[in-house]
């Protein structure tokens, strides 16, 4: 027995809307990790506001790593579509201060 997606060359972003586990619109948490450096959190707030104009630092949780080398951020954004969420992920992962996005 095979899945419809096996061997078809589909990418993860090609999931049909009816098969998505995320309902839009909704609040969606994204974890962003980067080196502990001045301006990191502010840069992420500014970037996220391009996709969710109502986002502000009060909607962000910050957690430094145990040795203080990294800063983990959880940003909870209002997303209205899969396209918006994908675009935000691409923007975050391509940001030079970001190490990992989950």
Automatic annotation (TrEMBL):
SUPFAM superfamilies: YbeD/HP0495-like
Pfam families linked to this entry: DUF493
Leader peptide range in chain numbering: none
Region (Disordered): 1-20
Classification via InterPro entries: UPF0250_YbeD-like (IPR007454), YbeD-like_sf (IPR027471)
Highest taxon of source: Bacteria
Family: Belongs to the UPF0250 family.
Entry-linked NCBIfam families: PRK02047.1 (NF002533)
UniProt-recorded name of the protein: UPF0250 protein E0W60_12100
């Amino acid at each position: 027995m095979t899945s419809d997606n096996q061997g078809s060359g589909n990418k993860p972003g090609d999931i049909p809307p009816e098969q998505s586990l995320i309902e839009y619109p909704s609040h969606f948490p994204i974890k962003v990790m980067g080196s502990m450096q001045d301006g990191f959190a502010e840069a992420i707030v500014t970037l996220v506001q391009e996709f969710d104009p109502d986002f502000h630092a009060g909607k962000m949780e910050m957690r430094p790593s145990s040795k203080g080398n990294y800063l983990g951020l959880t940003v909870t954004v209002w997303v209205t579509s899969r396209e918006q969420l994908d675009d935000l992920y691409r923007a975050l992962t391509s940001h030079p201060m970001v190490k990992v996005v989950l």
